Amino acid sequence: MDEPLLSLRTHLDAVERFGELRHVRGAHWDLELGGIAELSYRLAAPPAVLFDEIPGYPAGMRVLTGSTGSPRRLGRTLRLGDDLDDAGVVAALRGKPSRWAAAARDFPVRPVDDAPLLANEVPGEEVNLLEFPVPRWHEHDGGRFIGTGCFVVTSDPETGVHNGGCYRMEVADDGRTVTVAAVPGKHGAQNIQRWFEREGRAPVTVSFGHDPLLLVLGGTEVPGGISELEYAGAVLGERVPVVSGPDTGLPIPAGSEIAIEGWLRPDHLRDEGPFGEWTGYYSGRRRPNLAVEITRLWHRDDPVLLGAPPGKPPHDYSYMRTVMKSAMIHDELAATGVPGVVKAWAHESGGGRLFIAVSVEQRYPGHARQVAHLAAHCPAAAYMNRYVVVVDADINPADPDEVIWAMSTRSDPGQDIEVLRQTWGSRLDPLWTEGTPARNTRAIIDACRPFERLGSFPRVARSEPEFLREIERKWGDQLA
């Protein structure tokens, strides 16, 4: 049988051809996988890492990390090209998210009856998720988290539109069940709540190994009312093949390595957390969370678990989120019709969410402040954003040194910092206080030269680029 569309194995073959896959054999599921992955993210050229021969498990049961952590791997994942650098990925991505969203409904999922996933079926009462090498990623995690690179499918009970989200999932009851920490306010959590109100339970399917395109889409803000599986079809230019869960009717990607289906009930809870999150901190205390009543499980022979453990940036998907968010924020600003936006960048050190910089060619008084307010609340940036800095067009917003220089020399704290209150926060925020609403405040910083002084502001003390290129041609060899 040929590999289905969105097979993780096809992605692995491509990464191997790129020379960006490292094979690690014999590392233990308890902390060693997470520690090796964390070290890999700090390398100048972070590789993807495929773990095998994990103690206590048969050879061939593998775990992958770092699936999207380079320009080539992310470019391949988004089908933008296999030989792109950082700037090339961002340039190729500009304008694509809005076009993919518009085309998504032209690519409904394609039901199939056969897939490698169906090679092994386990009834719910016999399920043991710990038969797979589920890692304990961080020292102070509350348990073993099988869901880091997962794809959780829910549906709107009224419209039937599917949603695919990526949530943390901790194995519970000695492998018999798993929690789902759906983020409040996100589409998946809204679907679950609607099912609870209508039926008293919510259907769910979960894939634990698949092409990382589904990890990318499950972890970013695809517009409401659009299925991430149909959106993936628009990215691919082909309908995504799926098998249907016989109990829930929900789709499962045919390229999945391991998958479950079952039900969520408001009173079916298991203790969950804490977990080392993308903010760089452990979030929450151990407390009850929704858990899946698993009705059945499927897996391929020698399945591969897709891991995407977060932590203090850089982490598994911080590069991917930075690139995706930067392009989406820029596109959404352009869609408002505001002129002069040059570049947006959601900094990796802020997890691709907390610190956003935007460069603008100022056209009129108040222009920079307008862009700042729009960026702070556009859909791609609204969740848990903390700082938006707007800089002039001569500043590269992706360079933190340039952004800090602009903040230090072009902004007056008394006039150029505004604080927005009661905005969309998260319980993952290390500043959130338990028992209070998940809101935050955010600052916008106008680090542009005052519009009325554009012609008289002090000249920047640096040489013209053309002159420096000439000097480099003449003298560069003596500096090497």
Secondary-structure blueprint of this entry?
Blueprint: H1 8-18, E1 21-25, H2 32-41, E2 48-52, E3 62-65, H3 71-77, H4 86-93, H5 96-103, E4 110-111, E5 120-123, E6 145-147, E7 151-155, E8 162-165, E9 169-172, E10 177-178, H6 187-199, E11 202-207, H7 213-218, H8 228-236, E12 241-244, E13 251-253, E14 258-272, E15 275-276, E16 282-283, E17 287-299, E18 304-306, H9 318-335, E19 341-346, E20 355-360, H10 367-377, E21 387-392, H11 400-410, H12 413-416, E22 417-424, E23 439-447, H13 465-475
Parallel strand pairs: 1-2, 3-18, 4-12, 20-21, 21-23
Antiparallel strand pairs: 2-3, 5-17, 6-9, 7-8, 7-11, 9-10, 11-14, 12-13, 14-17, 15-16, 19-20, 22-23
Helix pairs in contact: 1-3, 4-9, 5-8
Any descriptors?
about 475 residues; alpha+beta; Pnp Oxidase, Chain A; UbiD C-terminal domain-like; 6-stranded antiparallel β-sheet; 5-stranded mixed β-sheet; 13 helices; about 25% helix; globular; UbiD_Rift_dom; EC 4.1.1.98; UbiD-like_N
Structure, described:
- Helix content is 26%, strand content 25%.
- The protein is of the alpha+beta class and 480 residues long.
- The protein has two domains: 8-306, Electron Transport, Fmn-binding Protein, Chain A (Pnp Oxidase, Chain A), CATH 2.30.110.10; 318-453, UbiD C-terminal domain-like (3-Layer(aba) Sandwich).
- A hairpin with a 6-residue loop joins strand 12 and strand 13 (251-253).
- The chain starts with 7 loop residues before the first helix and ends in a 5-residue tail after the last helix.
